[in-house]
Amino acid sequence: EAPLVESGGGLVQPGGSLRLSCAASGFAFEKYDMNWVRQAPGKPRELVASISSGGSTDYADSVKGRFTISRDNAKNLMYLQMNRLKPEDTAVYYCNAKLLRVDYWGQGTQVIVSS
Hints:
It is globular, with a radius of gyration of 13 Å. The chain contains no helices and eleven strands. It is mainly β.
């Protein structure tokens, strides 16, 4: 079983909302810092939001005030609530877990913001 599996992507109109989920398995999720990273066509990967093992959060300027990252250590889940979506948010969104030299990635979930 893959250590990280994303879900919740899809097609949404500008101004709409989506909630992405990342299910973790096979490692001590609560000890890992977690990230949402996105990659738009023809662009490098961009760190969108981070949440530490202790719950501290950080966001890219492009999503501050619109996206909220959270985690549920009891359920081994991480979320990204995305509101007021814009066409430039269109990308594949990846879940990432980091602890020292260990680095897990999910397969990604596609988000398309278009009318």
